[in-house]
Structures are given as structure tokens and as C-alpha cells.
Amino acid sequence: MSGKNATETVFADAKGIARAANILAGGGLVAVPTETVYGLAARADSDHAVARIYQAKGRPSFNPLIVHVRDAEQAARYARLERDADRLARSVWPGPLTLVLSRREDAGLAAAVTAGLPTVALRAPAHPAMRALLAACDFPLAAPSANRSGFISPTRAEHVSASLDGRIDLILDAGPCEEGVESTILAIREDGRWDELRPGPVDLDALHQRLLGAPRESGGAGDAIEAPGQLASHYAPGKPVRLNAAAAAPDEFMIGFGDVTGHCSLSLRGDLGEAAARLYACLHEAARSDLPRVAVAAVPEAGIGVAINDRLRRAAA
Ligand code: TXA
Ligand code: MG
């Protein structure tokens, strides 16, 4: 990489993590690996540092950020873990579940983190490098996905530098992300109801049944856009996307799945976990291609396929 604006990428080893912690302590921006996607981290207790996240991403200020913590104990400083929240946190964390809970008055988080909402989104990520980083920081980390607002999320360090090079202070590289789609977001309401705000790797129906021994009520998720990441157009490769395609037109970059082959494949063997892990890498490849359009094979609406199809519909919107 060249040019005076280039952001340095370093391996997420002990030295890289120590350097990242130092930059974050000083209010800087570091792209960090998580098990879902790469995040763009800043200290969540600093107005100045959090403002830099919005600026680097070109993110609208009404879209709040997820606060990353080590564990349920640290989370309890920012929100009251009432009703099922404590059990959920203790059984799923560290892992790809974000809990939206009532924020504590004395949370001490930068106001922009929650965009004026009375709630806060909290997650303890499982990636060992991110866990080591959180252990080295005596503050929580606000971190949205490390991409320009509205575009494809990053699952590799190269994806981060392709969209944020020169706008952030450091990229910690730990190779490709294992899960490949963003965390499941669950809001726990005052009345105890569970609302899924974003589908992801954690299957809430299975979790509800396991923890509470009863099926989850499929309450109407409301019509307010509460998680603005759920706006119609998102994850966009910058060219038209056609879904459920059986074959490509001559001017289309084809993303295959299973028997439907293409310029690249989400999973040749039709494995949904592999498809989730490869989803954004395939979309990045499609975005870089000279072909002006994108076609994507049908993906089964089951398990993690629900989250894959959610992202594909928004990429196509
Ligand atoms: O897997 C993930 O969750 C990744 C990694 C980096 O942890 N992060 C991520 O962040 O996907 P982001 O900013 O791309 O998506 C966060 C979503 C947005 O849709 C935002 O609107 C929603 O979380 N959100 C944040 N705080 C909220 C709150 N208090 N109430 C409702 N939604 C909230
Ligand atoms: Mg995002």
C-alpha cells in the first residue's frame, strides 16, 4: 500500500493489540476483527472519539452504535440486565448476540453512541483478538461495521482498507471472520417481550425454547425503524442486484450457491454456514468486477439463511 494517507494494517498479535489499545485510549479509530464482521472501534465514553466514527463512515447521526464489552459484569455498568437479559448474556456471551436494553442514567457513554435513545445495544464478542483488546482497555468500545455507511460489510482486513483507507488510524488483521454476517440484535422490552431487530447467527427461537422451555411469541416487530441498519438499502455493491437467479445474463456477475454455479460461489456444497462466511467477500468481488450487474442464486430461508437473505434483500433494494 502506498500514498501518504494509507492506514497501516498490522497482525492482531500481542504487539498489534497493545498498539491498538494505546491508539484507542488516546481517542483514535482502530478496525478490529470480530467473529461476525470487522468493526470500527473507538472508546465509547468519549464524545470526540465517537464523533470520529460517524465522520469516517459517513454514518447518519440518528443511527446508534453497538457498545462492545468483555462480559455481563461490564455490561451491567451501562444497562440494567433485567428480566431475561442476565441469563441470555451469561449463556450466549461471548458470542454474536447484541442485546438492546434500557440504558442506565449513569452509564457515562458518549451521547452520540445511543443517538438519543433511552436504550443501549451491548455485545460481548467471541473473537480472541477482540477479547484480548477489550481486556487491555479500561473503557468499552463502540464499534459499527468497518465500512462506509450503506456499503458492503467487511469480513477481511482488505475489505476495510478498500473502504476506509486514510480515514482511520490502524487496522488489526486476524484473517477472515468466521461467522460472516452481523450479530443477531434482540431488544428486551419493559414487559419482557423479545423483539428481533436484526436476524443473525444466533437463532432466537431455539434459544427461547432452550432457556425458557416455551416457544417465542412472534410479536409484531412494530413498524418504527428502530435499528436503522434495517433501512431498506444497505450492504449495497453500487450496482443493480437480482435475487433468486437460476443463471446469469451476459452482463451479470453471478454469485452461485450449491448446484447453481457462477463467477464465485457462496458454497459449492450448499452449506449455509459457509455461505454466510463468504457472503460479503462474494459481494465485494461482484462490486469490483467490470460487469455492470449482479445476480445471486436462491439461498434457502432456514437457519442462518434467514440472515443471509435479509442482507441480500437490502443489497438489492
Ligand atoms: O456483529 C455486529 O453486530 C457488528 C460487529 C462489529 O460487532 N457490528 C455491527 O454494527 O453490525 P452496525 O453499526 O453495523 O449495526 C448496529 C445496528 C444498527 O442497525 C443500529 O441501528 C442498531 O444496531 N442499534 C444500535 N443501538 C441500538 C439501540 N439502542 N436500539 C436499537 N437498535 C440499535
Ligand atoms: Mg453495518
Write up this protein.
This protein is 30% helix and 17% strand. With 317 residues, it is an alpha/beta fold. It folds into 2 domains: 165 residues, DHBP synthase, CATH 3.90.870; 76 residues, no CATH class. Helix 1 packs across helix 6. It binds threonylcarbamoyladenylate and magnesium ion. Threonylcarbamoyladenylate binds next to strand 5 and strand 6. The site of threonylcarbamoyladenylate has 30 residues, from strand 5 and strand 6.
Which key phrases capture this entry?
317 residues; alpha/beta; DHBP synthase; 2 domains; ten-stranded mixed beta sheet; four-stranded parallel beta sheet; 10 helices; globular; binds threonylcarbamoyladenylate; binds magnesium ion
List the helices and strands and how they pair.
Elements lengths: L8 E3 L2 H12 L4 E3 L6 E5 L3 H11 L8 E3 L3 H4 L9 H8 L4 E6 L8 H4 L4 E5 L4 H9 L4 E2 L14 H8 L5 E4 L10 E5 L5 E5 L5 H9 L28 E2 L9 E5 L7 E2 L6 H17 L4 E4 L8 H12 L1
Parallel strand pairs: 1-8, 2-8, 4-6, 5-9, 11-14, 12-13, 12-14
Antiparallel strand pairs: 2-3, 3-7, 4-7, 5-6, 9-10
Question: Would you identify the CATH H-level superfamily of the largest domain?
Answer: DHBP synthase
**Structural class determined from secondary elements:** alpha/beta
Topology order in helix (H) and strand (E) letters: EHEEHEHHEHEHEHEEEHEEEHEH
Overall geometric form: globular
Short description:
With 317 residues, this protein is of the alpha/beta class. The chain has helices at 14-25, 47-57, 72-75, 85-92, 111-114, 128-136, 157-164, 204-212, 272-288, 305-316; strands at residues 9-11, 30-32, 39-43, 66-68, 97-102, 119-123, 141-142, 170-173, 184-188, 194-198, 241-242, 252-256, 264-265, 293-296.
